[in-house]
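JOB MANIFEST
job_type = single_chain_structure
chain_count = 1
residues = 65
[input]
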Amino acid sequence: MAMKIRMKQSISGADFSLSPGDETERFSDDEAGRLIAAGVAEAVVASTAPKRERTTKKRPAETRG
């Protein structure tokens, strides 16, 4: 299984284009390690806890005067 990384900078090739914030597993572990070492990407740590959905309270309309 390939290492999952998150891009810090844009990178593109013949058949792909990745923007900052994109997560991918398309690179081998060696290549992903080189991208991380160069500061182009960062490793994504898998979270074991499920994501929680959060709601926000609706603020009352602002009145001036």
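[summary]
The chain has one helix and five strands.
The CA atoms of residues 30 and 60 lie 53 Å apart.
exit_status = 0
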